[in-house]
Amino acid sequence: MPYDDSVSPTPHRRPLFVAVALAAVCLSAAGCGAGGDSGGAQARPRQGSSATSAAPPSVSPSKSAPEPGKTSASPPSASPSKTTGGRVSGPLSGKTVVIDPGHNPDNHLHTREISRQVDIGTTHKECDTTGTSTDSGYPEARFTLDVSHRLRALLQAQGAKVILTYDDDRPYGPCVDERARIGNAAKADAVVSVHADGSAVGNRGFHVILPALVHGGAADTSKIVDPSRDLGTRIAGLFVRATGSAPSNYIGGNTGLDTRSDLGGLNLSTVPKVFIECGNMRDPKDAALLTSAGWRQKAAQGIADGITSYLNG
Question: Which residue in the list 67, 126, 140, 277 is annotated as catalytic?
Answer without folding.
Answer: 277
